[in-house]
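Incident review: delayed structure delivery

Summary: a single-chain prediction request sat in the queue longer than the usual turnaround. Root cause was a stuck worker, restarted by the on-call engineer. No data loss occurred. The affected request and its eventual output are reproduced below so the record is complete for anyone auditing the incident later.

Affected input:
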Amino acid sequence: MPRVLIRYPITIYTVDRAVGRNAPNDRLDVLLVQFLLFFSINGRNYGEIPNWWEELGYGDFSPPPPLTVRPGLRVATPVFRSPFTSKPLSHPKPQGDIVIDGICGDQTIGFIEYFQEQMQLKYPGAELNGQVVPWKIMGALTIGLLNGGLSHLAQPPMLSQFRAFPDELWDSFYL
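Output delivered after worker restart:
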């Protein structure tokens, strides 16, 4: 069952159990993820890290500092592949908009992987595993990035004001 975490002035929508590839995929959790994917991919602030991200202890995603060596020292040069180099996308955007139906099938997993790959291009360290796991699980950034799409809304964001918000979710949130 999805949850709303309120840490004034921040509101975070999260799932109770994982959604995606090889996950439990509870219907209400899937509905929330599908809605957040729809909103994040079609919204104005697509893939934007919210300004409260660092306040909650999640650090920044700036590129690593350049390697420097003091003059006169000889060192081996490590192989470093920049995450900012262009590479072909292995997870293209699925056609059309995501269907918000509470069923986690190939389309939903495709949108999750597409979203995660887009986030990897912007924020090195973001996972690409085809899953959205609950907030506060170590190394899980996708749910936070999905909530980042809501950051431009007034807090707390009232998701029910959007036509794409599934009515079935309205009574399912608990605090």
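Verification: Residues 77-81 have pLDDT under 50 and may be disordered.
Action items: add queue-age alerting; document worker restart procedure.
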